[in-house]
Write a structure and sequence with these properties.
The chain contains 16 helices and 17 strands. It is of the alpha+beta class. β16 (about 410-415) and β17 (about 420-425) form a beta hairpin. α1 packs across α14, α2 runs antiparallel to α7 (about 110-130) and α3 crosses α6 (about 95-110).
Length: about 450
């Protein structure tokens, strides 16, 4: 091995006798955010009934360490070694077998999943208290397929001819948080109203009680959400909705009745006009008696890109998409807001890189618990960004955060009963990481 120093190449001898070095130093932020948000304490309190004896590993701490491991990029219990082997940063961590026993205890208790969710909600309430609550909240609901590479309980053939699971997930668009999720067999339907309502209700429970009455809430779903049961539930719960709408024959007929003068320019997410895209409303040309009152159907059209293969629903070289909503305001702004639903795909993709891709256990209930820990890991990253980071890093995806902050190595210097974590001065993001630790220290401890 060779390195370049002062313009010269030098041979490097590699030894394993270093001292005072720690890796994944930035991931200590995640563990301490869990502590400062009160999440760790809430987990310990809620799971206290599962404590076998005095002196055994705190169940809440074990769940916290599992979530930190997943947020750090791990995807199985054996990756706990990264946390466990660095006690100076993370404290004493449980063995793999102890971590599994904790998951087994939670899976085997009928109320333990609810305990996890209640602790998660208390941590969220504390973060909203520190970072501020959003004035409005858009809940994005979506399902995704997970492939099972072995015969696991609950794994079933999927509609894409695969085999595995089909969880339903809910995310908060304004804060980037994971609000709810439910593991389902692979043959569960994407548009099953009962599952959608159950996950949406679980998402509402995650909103702090002091804010639930004041926040304007919108449920945003793709065309799988265009079912009467779900939208009737939205109306009863006083929640707005914006869902995809199929291009049925009545919808296509209504589109043909719209003149060119009725189309207005679509908007990009920054509010600027899109060069390719127009929107209009076709509500008056449709019979919507079966849908909730004040429902509107808004259609977007755009020219297909060169080389794209058109279908029978594409008219005059245009592709069309429709949404059903009860939102008021200009059609271009409503359609712009609905297209923001695409961000849920980013959340799901990132969670698949944070332990969701392959539920690791044989038993279904164990994998349900795993999904809850994945959601906690997701929120530890989101809370760290909201509370401690700024600029590009506050919006970066987990993979980028790991390479720039979380996986940074440092030297732990001990002197006069003081410990100092020394980051490499030339590392481009050293000042950002140091500033995040200073902000963390300044946060008040939970009551």
């Amino acid at each position: 091995m060779k390195v370049t120093h002062d313009g010269r190449q030098m041979k490097v001898e590699v030894t394993s006798d270093g001292a005072g070095l720690v890796s994944h130093a930035g991931s200590a932020l995640l563990a301490q955010v869990a502590d400062k948000s009160g999440l760790t304490r809430a987990l310990s309190r809620e799971l206290g009934a599962l404590q076998l004896r005095t002196g055994s590993h705190d169940r809440g701490r074990v769940v916290r360490d599992l979530a930190v491991m997943l947020a750090d990029g791990g995807d199985c219990l054996s990756d706990m070694a990264v946390v466990r082997d660095q006690a100076a940063l993370f404290g004493t961590a449980a063995s793999d077998s102890t971590a599994f026993r904790v998951i087994d205890q939670i899976a085997g208790h009928p109320e333990a999943i609810d305990w996890l969710r209640a602790a998660h909600a208390r941590g969220r309430a504390r973060v909203w208290e520190l970072a501020g609550a959003p004035g409005r909240l858009t809940i994005d609901l979506d399902a995704t397929l997970l492939t099972a590479h072995s015969d696991k309980e609950g794994a079933e053939p999927t509609w894409k001819r695969g085999y595995g699971f089909h969880p339903m997930l809910a995310y908060a668009d304004q804060t980037g948080e994971a609000l709810a999720g439910e593991l389902r067999p692979g043959n569960a339907g994407a548009g099953t109203a009962a599952d959608q309502i159950a996950v949406a209700e679980a998402a509402l429970v995650q909103i702090p009680e002091q804010h639930i009455e004041n926040i304007k809430i919108l449920l945003r779903v793709d065309s799988a959400g265009a079912c009467h049961e779900l939208l009737d539930w939205c109306r009863e719960a006083r929640i707005g909705y914006s869902v995809g709408f199929d291009l049925t024959e009545p919808v296509r007929d209504a589109i043909t009745k719209i003149t060119d003068q009725d189309w207005v320019c679509a908007l990009d997410q920054d509010g600027s006009e899109r060069p390719n895209g127009q929107v209009t409303e076709i509500t008056e040309h449709l019979h919507l008696a079966g849908w909730p009152t004040r429902s509107r159907v808004i259609v977007r059209r755009e020219r297909a890109h060169p080389g794209a293969q058109l279908t029978f629903t594409d008219v005059d070289g245009h592709r069309f998409q429709a949404i059903l909503t009860d939102q008021t305001g200009p059609v271009a702004e409503i359609e712009q807001g609905h297209r923001g639903r695409a961000r849920v795909e980013d959340h799901i993709r990132n969670d698949k890189d944070t332990g969701l891709r392959n539920p690791p256990f044989r038993d279904f209930e164990h994998n349900r618990v795993w999904l809850e820990v994945v959601r906690i890991a997701h929120d530890l990253i989101a809370w760290t960004q909201r509370l401690l980071l700024s600029g590009e890093l506050a919006k970066a995806e987990p993979k980028r955060l790991r390479y720039r902050l979380l996986h940074v190595a440092a030297r732990l210097a001990l002197h006069a009963r003081t410990a100092t974590l020394r980051l490499q001065a030339t590392w481009p993001w050293a000042s950002d990481l140091a500033a995040a630790f200073h902000k963390l220290k300044a946060l008040p401890a939970p009551a």
